[in-house]
Write a structure and sequence with these properties.
By secondary structure, the chain is α/β, with parallel strands linked by helices. The chain contains nine helices and five strands. The chain has a five-stranded mixed beta sheet. The chain is elongated. The relative contact order is 0.12.
């Protein structure tokens, strides 16, 4: 699966009021791994920043004056994202702005939803951490993603941070391939007998197995604050431990 982690910076909070995109940053993932391919462009918006917007990004009209307009990079941008799943934090905001830019370039460009699936990490975070702050900075702190170098909002930097946050939010989620499996009905299942008098096999665990197990638990605890193994151990009164062979 190809994914593009995407972020934009804009001249203000509402494209309906005429605000425009001034920066696009994208990071490509294939099978949940970065490919090294990125798309990053500063854009001349032809409109002024709303009060306070320039301070958030550090961008100015003077800096952007010689940059291309969205219409000049639209084909390159669409080629980069076409067919991918877009991973965006607060996707409604970015998609609203990008769809507006597409409309301004011509209705034949359609909209983002016709080209890509969209995964909103803000919605994922709200489900996982209900009632908590789920800004990108808050999620970086919660999931152990180093964002100390993020002094200002920047589309490419934020896309790179969001990529790490997304992996943390979806850690452990994998496609097990059940979709193509042939399902047996109760009538098709073959009968079998279980001899309960026979001893159950004993699984022996080596010291290396225990070390690998504890290392994985440490990663999960850092990202999520806890690990399912800890909850199982607590429920069992602390008896769910591993002993070396």
């Amino acid at each position: 699966m190809r994914q593009v982690i995407l972020d934009t910076e804009t001249t203000g909070l509402s494209w309906e009021r005429g605000c425009r995109v001034v920066e696009i940053g994208c990071v490509e993932f294939v099978e949940r791994r970065p490919t090294g391919r990125t798309f990053h462009r500063y854009l001349n918006p032809d409109v002024d920043f709303e009060p306070g917007a320039s301070e958030v990004t550090g961008l100015t009209l003077d800096f952007l004056s010689d940059k291309p307009r969205f219409a000049e990079v639209i084909d390159e941008f669409l080629e980069f994202i076409d067919g991918a799943e877009l991973v965006i934090h607060n996707a409604a905001f970015d998609i609203g702005f990008l769809d507006n830019e597409l409309r301004l370039c011509g209705t034949h460009y359609g909209c983002i939803a016709h080209r890509c699936r969209v995964e909103d990490t803000l919605l994922l975070a709200r489900k996982r951490y209900p009632g908590q702050r789920n800004s990108l900075d808050a999620l970086c702190r919660r999931l152990g993603v180093d964002n100390a170098h993020r002094q200002l909002h920047g589309a490419l930097l934020d896309a790179q941070l969001l990529a790490e946050v997304y992996i943390g939010l979806t850690s452990g989620q994998t496609d097990l391939g059940f979709g193509d499996a042939v399902v047996e009905t109760a009538n098709d299942a073959l009968p079998f007998e279980i001899d309960l008098s026979r001893p159950r096999p004993r699984v022996l665990v080596t010291a290396d197995d225990i070390a690998a197990h504890e290392s994985r638990l440490a990663v999960l605890r850092k990202k999520a604050g806890t690990a399912m193994w800890d909850r199982i151990s607590e429920a069992a009164g602390g008896d769910e431990t591993l002993a070396p062979a």
